[in-house]
Design brief:
- It is a single chain.
- This protein is of the alpha/beta class.
- It has ten helices and 13 strands.
- The protein folds into two domains: 214 residues, Rossmann fold; 57 residues, no CATH class.
- It is found in: Cell membrane.
- It is a peripheral membrane protein.
- Keywords: Antibiotic resistance, ATP-binding, Cell membrane, Membrane, Nucleotide-binding, Translocase, Transport.
Length: 310
């Protein structure tokens, strides 16, 4: 892991206002070094405003932020060579080719990564001489990711890193992020893809209307629930009366039973014992637990967007 005792990112009681609108309201979070933190929330939840604070593009209206132990605004010139920033909008020159853009940003770094390696790894070699404005949205995203990584950063900010990418490119990006973490690089990313967050993130912060609605590891956020639904395939037309107390039981198709409610370990054993006692020939059993997407939707379903701020 890259040296230093300070957290990669530490935000305490940060407030961001746009006129009368409060986009970020007393938000605190910590990203330890060498970990991946996913910042989740609907458009308007305050994610992009919070990233701008951490990247040093504006000061908070209240509270404080420290990035790699430094003030992201006051120490901006010292901090920037240590950061990789991938903007959702690209943030590069539209008339330059992909190869020119990547080599330009590599020239700013003291010890850049090999640009040819990045072009090959991100599937950009055949677009090396294509102007940025002629690249597809997914191709522009891949180039923006290469630009963020070429300077060997200690900390990477990724705003919707796989937006517009096809499945292969998305999985390549996931692998790169996992390799960054293995090398001790810290990553703060925003994403609307809940499977992406569940796979990549060590820690998750869910924002709602400018505040933190929940925080924890993906396992912590999903472990509060027992099994949501038990699906059993057995003989059709069973008398389900004995299963119903305290549970929802249905046979949506002949021989396919769904049971929900009261399905902790003891409840699960009781249900399966009932099928055994009934003499039913059980041929398949499937369970479903709450996912990060379930948690996210439950926490954000009633969100009212905060103006146009993100």
């Amino acid at each position: 892991m890259i040296g230093g005792d300070a957290a990669a990112v530490e935000v305490r009681d940060v407030v961001v206002r746009y006129g009368e609108t409060t986009a970020v309201d007393r938000v605190s979070l910590t990203l330890p070094r060498g970990r991946v933190l996913a910042l989740l929330g609907h458009n308007g939840a305050g994610k992009t405003s919070l990233l701008q604070i951490c990247e040093g593009f504006r000061r908070p209206d209240d509270g404080r932020a420290r990035v790699l132990g430094l003030d992201p605004v006051g120490d901006h010139d010292e901090l920037m060579p240590r950061l990789g920033i991938m903007l959702q909008s690209g943030g590069v020159y539209p008339w330059a080719t992909a190869g020119e853009i990547l080599r330009l940003f590599a020239s700013f770094a003291a010890h850049p990564l090999d640009t040819d390696m990045l072009l090959d790894r991100l599937g950009l070699r055949r677009f090396e001489r294509t102007r940025f404005r002629r690249l597809s949205g997914g191709e522009q995203q891949r180039l923006s990711l290469a630009v963020a990584l070429v300077g060997r950063p200690e900390l990477v900010f990724l705003d919707e890193p796989t937006a517009g990418m096809d499945t292969e490119a998305r999985h390549t990006t996931w692998q790169l992020i996992e390799e960054l973490r293995a090398d001790g690089v810290s990553v703060l990313l925003t994403t609307h893809l809940l499977d992406e967050a569940e796979r990549l993130a060590d820690d998750v912060v869910i924002m709602r209307s400018g505040t933190v609605a929940a925080t924890g590891t993906p396992a912590e956020l999903t472990s509060a629930a027992a099994i949501d639904v038990l699906e059993v395939r057995a003989d059709p037309g069973l008398d389900l009366t004995g299963l119903r107390p305290g549970r929802s039981v249905a046979e949506p198709a002949p021989g396919q039973y769904t049971i929900s409610g009261g399905l902790d370990t003891a409840g699960l054993a009781e249900v399966l014992a009932w099928f055994a006692a009934s003499g039913a020939d059980v041929t398949a059993i499937n369970t479903r637990r709450r996912t990060l997407e379930d948690v996210y939707l439950a926490l954000t379903a009633t969100q009212t967007p905060v103006g146009a701020a993100q």
